[in-house]
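Hypothesis: this fold can be encoded by more than one sequence.
Test: take the structure tokens below, design a sequence, compare later.
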């Protein structure tokens, strides 16, 4: 039987597991390597590129022709805009391990959360446009830095280039598991292209009420869309599996950020996860909310959660009967690895 973390208590934001040995570049080989070898990954790149001609990569299905220079709701162009790539120590324990997670932070986003701590790149669109080859170089550098995995954060809008970058990186010998770090707001078209490419889905379940999702994240039909996406992710990769040193090899982790005034609908979301995805699903319950971006001064979300709110959240977790995961402790202040504290990649612009 797989050992459970049994909702280990973790410090705010910086989640570490002491006493784990480093696995260097990892034990498990990424599943995308097989697709790269047999030519299927190249075929996926071509199929994904067709979607750009009438873009349906995200649930908004703008239908604009990005190959002709048109830009839809997210504002993304053809080439991936990257704010930062780095080894990140602050993800869930089996994601960051002891060597860090190889994070790539993509600019633009398919949602517009009023409280987004990553707003500088997700909504203000800071970053630099990169080719697929340049993105592949970033993945190679993260592997060389000893990261456990390739953690692609909010990358859906650039799916064709991401798939091509993985294909190119495979040719350079990269074999690290792929983490798809997502808001959960994913389309069937994107998930179909990702099957057999993604090893680990690290997916948010933000809301259980569509009115809250629309007001706070401008995300129509979020609840039905995200729940359908999580079901598909679970079908593709199953329950979280870990290598002998505890680092993630394959599976689904569901993240839930608790919002003030229960705007996240926590009790309903946890009950849904237990009943629809299974009580053995790994859940990351997050207390790190703070009023970033447009949330500052907002009556409903302009404060951190209270101790009483967090205690009710813990009670809801116990009532749901979920067996595996991690619970943050209430933070005392802003972490140095919060999104608002992350500096962009340094170096010359392309062609400089």
């Amino acid at each position: 039987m797989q050992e459970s973390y049994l909702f280990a208590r973790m410090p705010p934001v910086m989640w570490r597991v002491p006493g784990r040995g480093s696995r260097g570049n990892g034990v498990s080989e990424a599943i995308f390597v097989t697709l790269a070898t047999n030519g299927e990954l190249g075929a996926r790149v071509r199929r994904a590129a067709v979607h750009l001609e009438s873009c349906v990569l995200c649930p908004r299905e703008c239908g604009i022709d990005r190959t002709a220079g048109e830009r839809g709701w997210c504002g993304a162009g053809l080439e991936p805009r990257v704010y930062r790539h780095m080894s990140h120590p602050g993800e869930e324990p089996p994601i960051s391990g002891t060597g860090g997670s190889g994070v790539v932070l993509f600019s633009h986003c398919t949602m517009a959360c009023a409280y987004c701590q990553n707003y500088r790149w997700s909504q203000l669109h800071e970053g630099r446009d990169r080719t697929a080859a340049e993105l592949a170089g970033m993945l190679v550098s993260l592997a060389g830095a000893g990261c456990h995995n390739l953690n692609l954060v909010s990358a859906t809008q650039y799916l064709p280039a991401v798939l091509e970058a993985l294909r190119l990186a495979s040719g350079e010998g990269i074999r690290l598991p792929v983490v798809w770090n997502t808001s959960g707001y994913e389309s069937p078209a994107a998930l179909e292209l990702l099957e057999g490419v993604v090893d680990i889905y690290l997916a948010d379940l933000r809301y259980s009420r569509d009115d809250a999702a629309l007001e706070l994240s401008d995300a129509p039909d979020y609840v039905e869309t995200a729940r359908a996406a999580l079901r598909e992710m679970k079908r593709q990769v199953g329950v979280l599996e870990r290598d002998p040193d505890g680092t993630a090899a394959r599976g689904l982790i569901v993240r839930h950020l608790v919002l003030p005034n229960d705007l996240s609908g926590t009790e309903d979301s946890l009950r849904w996860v237990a009943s629809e995805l299974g009580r053995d699903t790994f859940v990351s319950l997050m207390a790190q909310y703070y009023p970033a971006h447009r949330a500052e001064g907002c009556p409903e979300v302009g404060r951190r959660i209270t101790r009483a709110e967090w205690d009710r959240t813990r009670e809801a977790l116990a009532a749901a009967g979920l067996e595996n995961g991690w619970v943050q402790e209430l933070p005392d202040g802003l972490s140095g690895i919060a999104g608002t504290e992350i500096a962009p990649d340094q170096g010359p612009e392309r062609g400089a």
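DSSP finds eleven helices and eleven strands in the chain. The domain at 8-332 is CATH 3.20.20.70 (TIM Barrel).
Hypothesis status: open.
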